[in-house]
């Protein structure tokens, strides 16, 4: 659109330079002058009308695009909120399971601290079967 506007301005300047040539030749009369100005003004009016029409179309498309972006943003926000709620729920569930497992391990009496955990890992769980001075007495 900007290129066509620049091109239209160049055409107007060309028409007006034609008027200057006629004036310098001395062949300008009222009829020629009015005809030339009418042509220049008509071109400018038509060009501006066309530009207004194109700008109106662009504004409509931009408005439609803005509404679509808003809708997409709202949808994404809603989906993120749903996912966050699911994650929070899952984390809470896993925390509860972890606490339950920790309590079960403590009740077994095999792993009550870090030292016992390492001992159980390195002995592939056999340490839980052997007597240990750190085991809880039930």
Would you write up a description of this structure?
The chain is mostly helical. It has helices at residues 2-25, 30-108, 114-122. Helix 1 packs antiparallel against helix 2 (30-108). The radius of gyration is 43 Å and the shape is rod-shaped.
Quick rundown:
The chain has 138 residues and is mainly α. It has three helices and no strands.
Layout: helices, strands, pairs:
Elements: H1 2-25, H2 30-108, H3 114-122
Helix pairs in contact: 1-2
SSE topology string? HHH
Number of β-strand runs: 0
Q: Uncertain regions: pLDDT < 50 for 5+ in a row?
A: none
Percentage of helical residues?
over 70%
Main β-sheet description: none
- Broad shape: rod-shaped
Query: How many discrete structural domains?
Result: 1
Q: Supply the number of helical segments.
A: 3
SSE class: mainly alpha
Features:
mainly alpha; 3 helices; 81% helix; 0% strand; rod-shaped
């Amino acid at each position: 659109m900007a290129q066509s506007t620049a091109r239209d301005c160049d055409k107007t300047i060309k028409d007006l330079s034609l008027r200057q040539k006629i004036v310098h030749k001395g062949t300008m009369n009222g009829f020629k002058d009015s005809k030339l100005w009418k042509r220049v003004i008509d071109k400018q009016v038509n060009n501006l009308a066309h530009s207004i029409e194109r700008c109106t179309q662009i504004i409509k498309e931009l408005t439609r695009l803005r509404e679509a972006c808003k809708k997409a943003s709202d949808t994404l926000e809603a989906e993120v909120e749903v996912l966050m709620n699911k994650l929070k729920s899952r984390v809470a569930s896993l925390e509860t399971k972890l606490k339950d497992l920790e309590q079960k391990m403590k009740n077994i009496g095999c792993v009550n601290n870090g030292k016992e955990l390492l001992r159980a890992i390195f002995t592939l769980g056999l340490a839980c079967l052997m007597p240990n001075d750190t085991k809880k007495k039930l």
